[in-house]
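Handoff note, outgoing to incoming analyst
You'll be picking up this chain. Sequence as last confirmed:
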Amino acid sequence: MTVLGLHSKKFSDLVKNMNQTHGKNLVLTAEQANNLHAEIFSLLARIVELENANKEENSIQVIMQGRGFVD
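Most recent structure output, in case you need it:
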């Protein structure tokens, strides 16, 4: 299930409305653009955080200790 943030949902609704009316342009206010920008970068930061956590969980540490040769 995909849950969109408030600003992503509003943007999606604007695009849907534009498509339904066969509009050619979509204009955002500065506030809408800033809010959408902040939400997108928050999501991107979360993706990076999850990717880094996944790398740490999937890493394997191998420790090799050498001993003397047997004659």
